Amino acid sequence: MFVAIFPPVEVREALLDAVMELPVRGKVRWNRPEAVHLTLKFLGEVSEDATYGIQSALENVCEQYAPFEVETSGFGAFPSNKRARVIWSGVGEGFEPLRSLAAEVEDSLERLGFERERRGYVPHITLGRARGRPVALDLAENAPESGHKFTASRVELVQSKLQRSGAVYSTVAACPFSEG
Fold it and tell me: What confidence tens digit (pLDDT) does each residue in 138-180 have?
């Protein structure tokens, strides 16, 4: 399971269309539009009983946030463009609210026994992963447009089931942000 924000489908499709214009040396498994998301916290295996506590913790966090704007910004790769394993779109507008939200989610779930992430949180939207060996990503000056805006209005608790065709995600709980 993991905690995430899903951009609207048109933003997901536009990001995938744009990133596929980038010159990549090597084989990449691109995400399907329905799988494109912004992860806030990876949880791993979770018992069905534990999901109620997680949902309650997420609802409490989400009550503290109003919907906010997010704009994607540029493309990049982890660990580097020359030896990419993960290809992503970054976040410009909305970066700080996302970092704050991820920290609150981290704190609330640590109280439920989930281990803290050791690395600092960097908001990004994973678009593809190298198949086997790392790939080289050429981020020339004429990179395709990546600035797509959307309103983050809820957090989702998502279950991932691996199948031959890849991971299939289903929302276990959707926790909207406060409107007031």
Answer: 876 556 667 899 999 999 999 999 887 778 899 999 999 997 5
Q: Residues 91, 131: contact at Cβ < 8 Å?
A: no
124 catalytic residue (yes or no): yes
Strands 86-91 and 154-163: unpaired
User: Active-site residue among 35, 54, 105, 124?
Assistant: 124
Catalytic residue among 7, 11, 37, 128: 37
Q: Name the CATH code of domain 2-176 (choices 3.30.360.10, 3.90.1140.10, 3.30.1830.10, 1.10.760.10).
A: 3.90.1140.10
- Residue 3 gets the label, from left (phi > 0), alpha (psi -120 to 50) or beta, of beta
